[in-house]
Fold this sequence. Notes:
Elements: E1 3-5, E2 9-17, E3 21-28, E4 38-45, H1 53-68, E5 83-91, E6 94-102, H2 108-120
Antiparallel strand pairs: 1-2, 2-3, 3-4, 4-6, 5-6
Keywords: ATP-binding, Kinase, Nucleotide-binding, Serine/threonine-protein kinase, Transferase
Catalytic activity: L-seryl-[protein] + ATP = O-phospho-L-seryl-[protein] + ADP + H(+); L-threonyl-[protein] + ATP = O-phospho-L-threonyl-[protein] + ADP + H(+)
EC number: 2.7.11.1
Amino acid sequence: MRYLMIGRYQVMSKLGWGMTSTVWLAMGLDEWRWRPPRHVTLKIKTNQHDYPSDEAASRELRMTQRVSSTNRRHRGYQFVRALQDSFYLEGPDGRHVCMVFDTLKEPLWNIEEAVREECFAG
């Protein structure tokens, strides 16, 4: 299964899902041919009739944009999963908010351990 999203991302595989979104591994298709393609993570918000998903998804996008635009020199910024891109997809169930992140490079448990050690050090 390989889908192209707005001509910029080629979906490779589903990574997971939850109540309000699905997460996909994708290849970022850069417009410059000399740059190698890079893996990204797409978080696609779902639209459910019993949940105010459009409003909640838009709020999550605004919060993620705000956190991503903070001071990159702050010592805690290394733990922020910064937003790389965002776009909307129209589907049979309405509009979906899509957020693009760098793919995590190490296991989540390792990141959790590093954060815990940093928070309780000293």
